[in-house]
Amino acid sequence: IPRGTNIVITDASSAAVENPPSEMAREVLRLIRDAFRRDGSVLIPVDGFTRGIELLVMLDRLFAEEGLTYPLVFASPKAKQMTSRLRSMPEFVAEGVFTDDTAFPRIKMAHSTDEVDAIEGVKCIVAHTQHFDDGLGAALLPAFLKDPKSCVLLPQKPPQGTNAWPLYDAVSQGKSLKG
Fold first, then answer.
1. Which of 20, 143, 164, 172 has the highest count of CB atoms within 10 angstroms of its CB?
2. CB–CB of 162/108 below 8 Å?
3. What is the pLDDT of residues 58-85, one digit of tens each?
């Protein structure tokens, strides 16, 4: 793991969409805000499309409450296609996810690393990739590991043998990842 890398492991499963946001959700927001203050971006892998949307809805609500205007990005090759499926899911309709005919008006959808890179400035990226083994998250991870200002949030303990495991293992053993 390169020196200067910021890795945080959190049990984001307890940061589900709820009113009011849980302490875990507030802690996740604090970590994201800390990265933004360092002029760094945040990368969060999620294991499924629905879980990614739940996390984005929670973050969108927290960003709005806190007045944060940084971009929230959902990085998935099928992000736009999948959001149309949400119109049939009552939990997302009830959350006010849809404004007019637009799903997630404040959340940017990116189908490729080029589209993620085209979004200027620091950003919070929720990437559809289970443990950085494939997908856009795996493609974005190397740049995040090289950037001491940015942060990678692991929502759960990854299995051994995955690309996320060395990150988790280093942090859990108390190894310093900073310069």
1. 164
2. no
3. 898 889 889 999 999 999 887 766 666 6
